[in-house]
Write a structure and sequence with these properties.
single chain
Length: 238
């Protein structure tokens, strides 16, 4: 029996489509990503388990993270968020059945991530704020030990300007402070995800990250500098 590939849209409820479709995520300014998050944390992806949803119509993937650092937790969650955080994502594979949800991220087991997440007890296609906009994989320079956050597509952060995250070309690794450029096979593009399956046009459909140039930047933000930018906005929201 051939594998079944289903692509899901998130509207008022999950709708299964028999054809490929693109979801849309409205651009979120960096300040808004920080503001919407219930918890912001650094954590290592440890275990991923798939399970069937109600009536076996949906598959969910539970991803367990070993918390390395809590950057922020909303009032009421303080003290409840401890050593491990479990996040649930729509989609996954069980046997020959595969359900793929557009713009729901995949995680590399053993890798560390900085995550802006909702943690309000509700079920989402992805609990990460703004889909990929609130997800950063952490890459560590094996020689000097400094860690750096990368956006979707493994792009290093050069800075934050007018609430846009400025990035460089995708990189494969950092050694001794030297960035090694990764092969880029697709046009630089940010995917959007809306609560309804509709096109986003005009001013709303701008990139949430801006690439400065195709050349490697001279300096990129390390994880402590990026967390410093997050903390500035947390303090501003009080």
């Amino acid at each position: 029996m051939k594998s079944i590939m289903l692509v899901i849209f998130l509207a008022a409820s999950f709708v299964i489509a028999a054809y490929p479709c693109n979801a849309m995520q409205l651009y979120l300014p960096f300040d808004e990503i920080v503001k919407q998050a219930d918890v912001i944390f650094l954590g290592k992806a440890l275990e991923q388990q798939t399970r069937a949803g109600a009536n076996d119509k949906m598959i969910f993937t539970d991803v367990s993270f070993k918390v390395e650092r809590i950057i922020f937790s909303r009032e009421g969650l303080q003290g409840k968020v401890k050593d491990d955080i479990l996040l649930t994502f729509a989609g996954g594979k069980m046997g020959e059945k595969i359900i793929k949800v557009s713009d729901v991220p995949f995680f590399d087991t053993g890798s560390t991530y900085l995550i802006f997440t909702l943690l309000d007890g509700k079920t989402y296609a992805s609990p990460i704020v703004g889909s990929y906009q609130g997800l950063f994989q952490v890459l560590t320079d094996e020689i000097i030990g400094i860690s750096y956050p990368l956006t979707s597509g493994k792009r290093p952060i050069v800075g934050i300007e007018n609430q846009d995250i400025l990035v460089g070309p995708p990189i494969s690794q950092i050694k001794g402070g030297i960035l090694e450029k990764a092969a880029e096979t697709e046009e630089v593009r940010w995917k959007y995800y809306d609560v309804a399956p509709q096109a986003v046009e005009g001013e709303q459909a701008k990139a949430s990250v801006k690439q400065l140039s195709k050349e490697m930047p001279q300096k990129i933000m390390n994880i402590d500098e990026f967390i410093g930018e997050i903390n500035k906005r947390i303090q501003g929201n009080k």
